[in-house]
Design goal:
Blueprint lengths: L5 H19 L6 E4 L2 H19 L17 H25 L8 E3 L16 H17 L2 H39 L9
Antiparallel strand pairs: 1-2
Helix pairs in contact: 1-3, 1-4, 2-5, 3-4, 4-5
């Protein structure tokens, strides 16, 4: 019996990400202002749907169960690599935010604009990393349902990031506008 199949190996970065998130959430600054509960509920619901599409074969109904890539070792290995890389970017970004991270769109007490680490190049690198990891998982799964999950993740992270941008622009004004000119939204801005 093989313990570490490609499917199991693909889960390792997700478990590492989850463990790091749980541990680092123990040391956060207090929230000063945050989004309404409806926004948070929408985000949680969308993420549940995204991960169900990525991991539940039951949602492979009709064309959603068709393969969009061949089922071979190269495709699976590429997907596993992307999942590890995306999780690493998300963990690095989460580490860089430190005590200013929050699961909901919010501003912390004495909030600072983080512009180092991956934030020097991308304004929302956690979402970028998660999307890259989701794309890797989609390659491993290989079915259209996983592609739909990634697309829904992109829509939801874009919505949440736009809300964060509104909060940060209000809080930091011209400093944030300058940062927007220097760093890309979900991908690095090349000058």
């Amino acid at each position: 019996m093989k313990f570490m199949t490609p499917s199991n190996l693909e889960l390792v970065p997700w478990y590492a990400l989850l463990a790091y998130w749980a541990l680092s959430a123990l040391r956060l600054k207090r929230i000063r202002v945050s989004e309404d509960p409806g926004g948070r509920l929408l985000h949680i619901g969308m993420m549940v749907l995204v991960f169900m599409l990525l991991y539940s074969p039951r949602l492979g109904l009709s064309f959603l169960g068709w393969r969009f890539v061949p089922d071979n070792a190269l495709v699976r290995s590429s997907g596993i690599f992307l999942t590890f890389a995306g999780a690493a970017v998300a963990i690095w970004a989460r580490y860089s935010l430190g005590q200013y991270w929050s699961g909901r769109v919010s501003l912390k007490v004495d909030h600072q604009l983080i512009r180092f680490g991956p934030y020097a190049h991308v304004r929302h690198p956690i979402y970028s990393g998660l999307l890259l990891a989701m794309a890797g998982t989609a390659l491993v799964v290989g079915e259209w349902r996983a592609v739909l999950g990634v697309l829904l993740g992109l829509v939801e992270f874009s919505r949440k990031a736009a809300k964060e941008e509104s909060f940060l622009a209000t809080e930091f004004g011209d400093q944030y506008q300058e940062y927007r000119r220097q760093a890309g939204f979900l991908t690095p801005r090349f000058r």
